[in-house]
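Batch job 17 of 40 flagged for manual review because the log was empty.
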Amino acid sequence: MTMDDNRTAETPPTSAATPQPRVRLQIKQGTALGPGKAALLEALERTGSISAAGRELDMSYRRAWLLIHSVNQAYKQPLVEASKGGAGGGGAQLTPLGREVLSIYRRMERKALRAIQPDLDVLQKLLHD
């Protein structure tokens, strides 16, 4: 776990001076879930598009697509369903499993913060103003 103050939509807002845990889970060999993939899944849920989600996060379409592809391959069922473009345009959405995985990940982040909050408070008191 590393400290960072970059938070996404489902996590509580904090001041820039408040350290926050960044949970990165190595679920199994070659399969990880962390703040970047979680933020991408949230952006995709908001925008309905892999390319729009990538743009929102200053990420190339290719990078966003590769991350989505990796999470879809890692789980028993896809976390994201995409439809190809065309006259009506394409799109993407989280599957029910995608929403569940994202919710579990965010819950784990909140639990991690609660677990380390007393130590964070002590560390903050030791810093210069």
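Reviewer: the log was empty due to a logging misconfiguration, but the result itself is present. The chain has one domain: 33-125. Unflagging and moving on to job 18.
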